[in-house]
Amino acid sequence: MKTSRGQSGFTLIELLMVVSTIGVLGALGMQSYNLYKQRTYNTITEHSVHNIISAMAAGRIDNDFMDNFGFAWAWLDTAGVPADATARELLPGYVHPAGVQMWVWHDAWCSQGLLGEWCTIDMLSGRHCKGDKWYMFQRLRNGLDVRMEWAAVGTC
Predict the structure, then answer these.
(1) For the chain: N or C, fewer Cβ within 10 A?
(2) Are strands 100-107 and 71-76 parallel, antiparallel or unpaired?
């Protein structure tokens, strides 16, 4: 701060430096915040996949629904308990979170061994509408579990 003839204050250069420093810090903060939001949305989807896997396992234990159908599938895109009766039987006790789209599929013929060892018993795929990744889980007849993720483009 310069003083001359009794005047005091900040020079224009000092003010510009402060404003530009605040701008740079704000830009870095926004980028970090956006990455944080993406990780949060992706974590919600990952937890949904895990919860669906647990619900499908509970469905196998609770009833014979899984083996009574050749195949069952559900498209989940609204929050709460699935509205479709087949989805409720396929995923007992599952409550779907808001903003997540999930596709769930079960093949009873494969689980009974009618289609060979490399067929897919369970498959589910999903993403959060504001997330940047798709997640997929696949359980094969031979006991192999496959998990994949890839970039999602666009929004729901």
Answers:
(1) N
(2) antiparallel
Q: Is 3 contained in some domain?
A: no
Residue 90, burial from CB neighbour count under 10 angstroms (0-12, 13-18, 19+): buried
- Structural domain total, the chain: 1
Q: 126 is in which domain, residue-wise?
A: 12-151
CA distances to 27, 56, 113 from 140, in Å: 46, 14, 11
- pLDDT tens digits, one per residue of 80-131: 888 877 788 778 888 889 899 988 888 878 877 778 878 888 889 999 988 8
Q: Is residue 66 part of a domain?
A: yes
Residues recorded for the chain: 156
Instruction: Determine, yes or no, domain membership for 120.
Output: yes
Tokens of 66: 């899984």
What CATH number does residue 147 fall under?
A: 3.30.700
Contacts of 10 (CB under 8 A, 6+ apart): 1
DSSP 74-129: EEE-SSBS-SSHHHHHHSTT--BPTTEEEEEEEEHHHHTTTT-TTSEEEEEEEEET
